[in-house]
Amino acid sequence: MSTYEANRYSFPASSIASGTLADARIPNLATSKITSGTFADARLSSSSVTQHVDLTSLDASNLTSGTIPNARYGTPTFNGSNLTNTSVASSVGSWSPGANFNSHSWHQAKYVKVGRHCTVTLRMQSTGFNSFPTGNARGSIFYISGLPFTSWNGGNPIGGGVVSMANYSSSAISAWVGANSNRIYFKTDGPGFDFAVTDNAGTQSGTFYTRMLAYQISYQSNTSWRYSHIQATYITAS
């Protein structure tokens, strides 16, 4: 074979400067051979790319598992439209009131608690009375005990409400709940004759009704006048 014939069959690829090679002349190319340049987007399918993902415009719907670290959360801003579940732990039931003076019949002692806000209602009737209070008993503060939840120890008062009682006082009565307490006291905006005393109830000084009030209520000759109605709302400890 002549030298020309020998060189014809060992033609170097570097000498191919134009034209198009047939597919059959191009062997399989390993990806390790591609060390520079940029692939056109059309050459890459979404299913073949898993290592590098652009997170700058990632939709929340793409997050289907795992846990986001706390450091990745910013400061959220909420308004009414953001809240889709507004349920709060709540309970309803009855409570067992007691009084520190006279005997009573308790009616409609109910409560509703939503979160840490508890509203109690009470309808009570004086069914008997002790002897006329004298001395220290006369000035001892009257209260109802047995609130279903202890009040929050966050300052005084921690709750209160309205009261309707048969009494001879010229002053309005309001329910008063102090801190860290299971009691309802009765507060007045004035001296209230013999029915009130400036003293300390639930670590808070003020003008509170005394046992004299309970005596006067139970002393009514008409038993229908012996009913009292109380409704109060307070913040609970937990």
Structural description of this entry:
The protein is mainly beta. It has a domain at 90-235. The chain is built from three helices and eleven strands. It has helices spanning 3-8, 135-139, 211-218, and strands at residues 90-94, 98-99, 103-114, 117-128, 143-145, 159-164, 173-177, 183-188, 196-201, 204-209, 227-235. The strands form two sheets. Strands 1-3-4-11-6-7-8-5-2 form a nine-stranded antiparallel sheet. Strand 9 (196-201) and strand 10 (204-209) form a beta hairpin. The model has no long low-confidence stretch (mean pLDDT 76).
Following the backbone from N to C, one meets helices and strands in this order, namely: HEEEEHEEEEEEHE
Average pLDDT for all residues = 76
Q: For the record, give the distance between the C-alpha atoms at the N and C termini, rounded to a whole number.
A: 103 Å
Strand content: 25-35%
Structural class determined from secondary elements: mainly beta
Low-confidence stretches: none
**Overall outline:** rod-shaped
Detail the topology: elements first, then pairings.
Layout: H1 3-8, E1 90-94, E2 98-99, E3 103-114, E4 117-128, H2 135-139, E5 143-145, E6 159-164, E7 173-177, E8 183-188, E9 196-201, E10 204-209, H3 211-218, E11 227-235
Antiparallel strand pairs: 1-3, 2-5, 3-4, 4-11, 5-8, 6-7, 6-11, 7-8, 9-10
Based on the model shown, name its key terms.
238 residues, mainly beta, nine-stranded antiparallel sheet, two-stranded antiparallel ribbon, rod-shaped
